[in-house]
Amino acid sequence: MLKKKIKIISLITLLIISLFAPIVNAENETNENQAVPINETQETITIEEGDKYLFQDSVAIDNPVDGNLFIMANTVTINSQVGGDAFIVANTINIEENGYVLSNLFACANIIHVKGVAYNIYSVGDTLTIDGFVYRDVKSICNTLNINSMIGRDVFANCSSINFKEKPNTENTPSIASYGSIQGDLNYSSDEEIAIPEDSVAGETHFSQLQNHTTFDISNYMYSLGAILVSAIIIWLIGLWISPKLLHNASHPITVRKALQIIGLGIIVPIVITLLSFIILLIPITSHLTILLLCILAILFFISTSVAIININTMICNKLKITQNLYKLGFLIVTTVVFWLLTLIPYAGMVISFIAMIWGIGSASYSILIKEKSDEKNFDSDKKFSDSEEKQEKIESKPEKVKKEDKSNKSEKAKKGTKKTDKDKNSEKKKDK
Predict the structure, then answer these.
(1) Are residues 319 and 352 in the same domain?
(2) Are residues 53 and 153 in the same domain?
(3) CB-based contact 150:137 (threshold 8 Å)
(4) What is each CA distance from 174 to 168, 169, 179, 180, in whole angstroms?
């Protein structure tokens, strides 16, 4: 009995000591080192939900982001997990060891250094260095590609040099992440073939030499001509179908004042939209509107050349007094071809394209912003012109009426005269009798 009691008492004491031992250690640590409790440090880590739009000189992502990243900065450092895609334009991009991009990394930077993990990498820049791990593919256009760790699948590169970290010569088999290796295929283009170390590419290596295309390729010219023709015709047809009033302003003669307004709008509107997009980007509530503004700006740039060609064609058709849409369409094709040929002139073609872009943006903005005033004035002038024409027709028609009336009066007088002569003859006969 005593032995059983002693065993029970000893077990109870051991349990009590094991329960209170961690509490005593925690108290000692907080008293001696004055450390912050673990619960408080966990509360400070917050997960940022939703997409992030950042425009700063230096950006550091230290908290997990459950969404996509849109960053434009000088230096970008990612120290945490990114749940979506990362779209980054910067001078230097650093994906640190704790950085983890769960989806795709789209990077445009001078220097890109990946020490952490990324799913796919799509990059444009001068130097791309991979010291971390890439789950799948790397597609890059760069000057120098440094592969110091493992890439899970294929590499597609257009670069001048590719450098691999050599496999260490040790008796023990080194880990795959300790040297540069590609587990899939290597497809690269360069001026000259690059020496690839053995056992660094698990799959096949395909090389294609970059060539200077000095020969005349007519297909590219035909493609550009077809693109500008199709865009001009489609925009002209949309203008006739949706709102012919947008083409109404171009049918009137362009004064010096109107030309200056169009050129001013062509310069000011893109600047204003760009500034507004940056200002709205800094406000978290309205940051999503930046995509809408940038889309509007892209549409203006896309249709600018076609709008300028349509305006030129409309002025030509008005001078030639062409009213049928079928003939206008034919002249539009001719105008587009002539404009395209002018853009092929060295140096002068760039100036012509730039002027057409400004004029197209300004003309589209003028039709939208100054639509009501210009239309009212134009319609009033049309009414005045039509009224003046009616007056002239009335004035011209008056002499004809007067002539008709004179002729009718003369004929009546002649009839009366004949009647009088007949009476006079009868009276004279009576007198003779």
Answers:
(1) yes
(2) yes
(3) no
(4) 7, 8, 8, 12
